[in-house]
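Summary for the steering committee. The consortium agreed at its last meeting that each partner would contribute one worked example illustrating the joint modelling workflow. Our contribution is presented below. We chose a case with several input lines so that the handling of multiple components could be demonstrated. No manual editing was applied between input and output; the record is shown as generated.
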Amino acid sequence: MFNRNKARSLRIGAVLLAGSVAFTLAGCSGSSSGGSSGGSGGNVKVGLITKTDSNPYFVKLREAAQAEADKKGATLVALAGAFDGDNEGQVAAIENLVSQGVKGILITPNSSSGILTAIKSARDAGVVVIALDTATDPEDAVDATYATDNKAAGVTQGKWVKATLGSTAPALVMLDGTPGGTVDTFRHDGFLEGFGTTEGSSEIVGQENTNGDQTKAQTAMENLLQRAPGVNALYTINEPAAAGAYEAIKAAGKTDQVTIGSIDGSCTGVANVKSGIIGATVMQFPAKMAEQGVDAVVTYAADGTKPSGFNDTGSQLITDKPVTGLDSKDTTWGAENCWG
Amino acid sequence: MTSTTAGLTGRDLSRARVSRILREPLLGPLAALIVAIIIFSVISQTFLNPYNLSLILQQSVVVGILAVGQTLIILTSGIDLSIGSVAVLGTIVMAQVSGGGNPILALGATFVVCVVLGAVNGGLVTLLRLPPFIVTLGTFTAIQAATRLLAGSQTYQVPDGVLTFLGTSFRIGTFATTYGVVAMLFVYLIVWYALSQTAWGKHVYAVGGNVTASKLSGIKSNRTLFSVYLVTGVIAAIAAWAALGRIPNADPNAYQNANLETITAVVIGGTSLFGGRGSVIGTLIGTLIVGVLRNGLTQAGVDSLYQNIATGILVIVAVTVDQFARRRSA
Amino acid sequence: MTTTTATPVLQARGLVKKYGNVTAINGADFDLYPGEVLAVVGDNGAGKSSLIKALAGALIPDQGEILMNGEKMNFRNTRDARAAGIETVYQDLAVIPALDIATNVFLGREVRRKGIMGSVFRRLDMPRMRSEASGHLADLKIGIKSVNQAVETLSGGQRQGVAVVRAAAFGRGVIIMDEPTAALGVKESGQVIDLIRSIRDRGIPVVLISHDMPHVFEVSDRIHVHRLGQRAGVIDPRERSMSEVVALMTGAERPSEAEQAGGVR
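What follows is the complete predicted structure of the assembly.
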């Protein structure tokens, strides 16, 4: 009469649920033990919060941080936003890291302003907070920033594209990332400066947001080519966007007509420069940011010295078509120093 | 338990109560939550302190509130992919209207916008008889774009005051928490009451369990369904308010995963995706399980990708249990 | 036609329902008298289910009229029919499996608490609904342990029992049962037949739509034979055999004039 089967199945369910929690916990805690070995500095805990887990750029950042933490005998806890732009996830990550008692937090903020309250609470709790890759707004909301000077990187890209065009009248298309993003804005503005033009100029024949996504960039470029068939210069927010745009340009048979510039320095990107898909890219050095960030936290834990200010980790123009007056390295050098 | 008399003695009633507890579908999620808390307390010294537990609650507030709406929709055997985007639009509306200096007006405008969007979803589902999955997929896409247009793809700082009220913290003994947490628990309490103690609640279950049978029983199924979408709109507005309390920054890119996170909480809480079966208490437990996992795994020094694996496994186990229970009872 | 003074509880005259070129009801008549079990039989496609739907308010006829106790009715939906006292038990077991028995019995006409809890807070009076539901179950001799259990924990016969109880509990006028035994086993069908008798014994007339001739003959007082969208005739099960009824259904035999006119009372 009484539904004993169902009761039993639910009890089995309870055990399954509970068991899976225990199982996952066991599996996970095993995987993260890497950082705690060989600790000397009193086992300093360092939190790293990247924008996402999925982008190879942040993977490189994480790996470099992990390696540096291992070297210095610190423990790294790597967290990330769930998606590009996930501020809430990063806020929760900061709170959880502070609650856990980390000495320092390295963060690539998804929202340069939305994150500020959480950063302030963390700093008030005595945690040193360092922005990696992306600055906060205002910049002094964190103790220090280790990042590429994205404006300078944009300028370099702009100068190279302009110099490659030579005397041809420019018809520029801009494939941006996420509207309103800090890095996006710096690169965009830097490019315009280096290219020698201004927002709203008639030289700009098209602009589209791609979220730095290859597929979206391809679609955007396909559409822009319809509107502006005479395009000869292309700004891209990153290398996937450049690769996507190239597909569209190739399909339109205009590869010889368009000069493509990009920023990032991923190994795929460098390979694309080598094979001529991208004309030039401006390489960033995420590993440097991560290493310097971890070092700063370890130093702070050891003697209380806090890092400060904006620290440019540099950028490097990579191209096999150098132009005079612009320092550049070839793709062989690029392949040795790329990330991802 | 072989007695087949129809009349009920007091003893029968208490027995019935015991047996009801035993086959309580909340048993599984509750056990999982308790096990998780015990394990984290053992492996992390920082987990089981009042500050940290309060954090878990605060981090659960927005998705927790939205999950109440999602529970209602899923109980009617629908699904709402737009619920998070409605709330995000709500935060932008709130921030922009409050720019005019009147936060109460801003709050009101948000409620109106969210309820109207709920009515759009509900209208499409009931009047045009479109599947909720498709309807809300469409509105999700459109609302997200509209939000970005409205926000001009910028974020808006909200001044302290009425709009950030739900972020205000207060103390109960050593335990500090926010009014947002209270609001969340209040939403759960109200909807729990409505679902379990009123005719409307019974009709929600009935419409989700068997819409034809509900109609034949004289339930105005479309009206019930529509009301569920309206209520969900109200809940989204409350979530928007709570979101600004938590982070006083209206961000068009925020909570992109909230739609799916609410579904996760609902499913882990034992509510059936097939409708007509489940409870908001389960969803509260599901929300807390997700919050405890995320926080506890961080306390234990586990990277976020592994945390997602843990959550993913839980969802699959929960759905398996649901299927299992359904097959047994079919 | 014998003289009869009783007014039919439920009556239909000249009902017509067309769907495009298809005529589902073609001028059908119907009479149900107080205290009787009237079986409605007919071949598949004879239109008996359309007739029943019209009587239950589930479809609106194009022409003709429906009367209850001599009064003309205008059912726009099943709610109207229910309000008039016509309860229908559908063959696809119109119960909600996940809800408990008491809730199912009172579904769509829940009882709220007295006072402010009921009027303002809309709180249901679950104890009262439970005790009334178990009282109704006991009245109809349906052996179910607890009205708190979900309907899905019941056997098919018990579920049908719950559906019948729901109809009987509120059926002030008429209970229509659409193939109540179609999904059931032999023993459970027997229980449902007993149920129909208990309902009739309480003075509520029952319309039984069924394909199962032995059941029809076992329980019904009169048999309405439906054919080609019309009432072919009403026969007395004591005068006709099962095979004769089957012949009438298929048109192999014609009903007598008295039967065609609406049968004996």
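The radius of gyration of chain B is 21 Å. Chain B touches chain A through 74 residues (CB under 8 Å).
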